[in-house]
Amino acid sequence: MLIPSIDLKDGAVVQLVQGERLAIRDDDVFRWVRRFERFPKVQVIDLDGAMASGDNLALVRQIAGVLSCRVGGGIRTVARAQDVLAAGAHQVIAGSALFKDGRPDVDFAASLADAVGRERVIAAVDSRGGYVVIHGWKTPLPLTPQEAVRALEPYCDEFLYTHVDTEGLMGGTNMEAILAVARVTPRRVTAAGGITTQAEIDELDSLGIDAVVGMALYTGTLKLDSESR
Fold it and tell me: Which of 4, 186, 189, 194 could connect to 36 by a Cys-Cys bridge, CB 3.0–4.6 Å?
């Protein structure tokens, strides 16, 4: 299944290359909300929240009220998770907060799962150069994505794996890296990072893996009308 991504920064929809260089900015956020409203799943990421440079919480709440979405970026407390879920989000995506001192923070993961329900928690495991990265992909940890997935598995119902090495480059994703993560857990895995073509989406779908797509949709490389849900 294709999951469109709405990434928010400074109150606008953006697409960043490798999480750093701005490639696309559109201040008309709800133009994209309307375009994606037919999809059963949409991913909404507050990049300012993820990078601890502010937040777009009011906007996130508005979007969560009208889209069938999962929300991430700045989910560092149980209260923040409860806030976006109360606004209408179906699930929350926790990332950096799931790690502490270079290791999975299973205490926080357990408290989050206990508070909102494991079925509403998606654990984000982002990888660059074969190791987990956090804080907006700026801080590498001495931990492989497979090790992180095994440790966090009891506390979430799904993993979001982003292959940062290919993110935003429009050159395709790394199927083997995605499969290496999927093989170590019975939990559902959603993949992101450079997914560009319908063929990639179809291949992942055949393996039971959802595909988050951003840049290819915003540039028009992948046409919405060609999507099968």
Answer: 4
